[in-house]
Design a protein that fits this description.
34% helix
Length: 175
Amino acid sequence: MLEEMGVSFEVMPANIEEKAIRFEDPKELVLAIARAKTDALKSKIFEPAILITSDQIVVWQGRIREKPENEKEAREFLEGYNIHPAETVGAVVVTNLETGKQAEGVDTAKVHFSPFSEDEIDCLVADEQIFNFAGGFTIDGERWVSHIREIEGTRDSVIGLPKDLTRRLIREVTE
């Protein structure tokens, strides 16, 4: 997303224990994790920079869905998306390390899927990529794209870094 925005960047893993941070409210949770990433990285950067951290989770029927832990859970996720949409909840925290100015925000989107057949679920689970995604889904790849009926919100919000929000936050900390 940052490349698409024309932003030069360097990726640095925060190496925090995300599962140690728990909140019932999805927006509170993603903000807390993004803030923790900021705190972990600030002390590792020794030059003026704009630090962007983010986090995203998937909510289905009011329940937070992380990466599926096993085949059974992955199947349950996909079967659930046959009934109700998945909602992505993402937070972005932008910090100007030179001035200390910080801005943050939350963005949401909903993905409505057309039904997955049992054979399609078998293929998606066998592929094992499903275990790398919050909520057990992505909107990229031929198998997935054919099932996206509607996205309420923006594609980049679903992918994990909402461009409009990120641009606004960068402006807030650089003006």
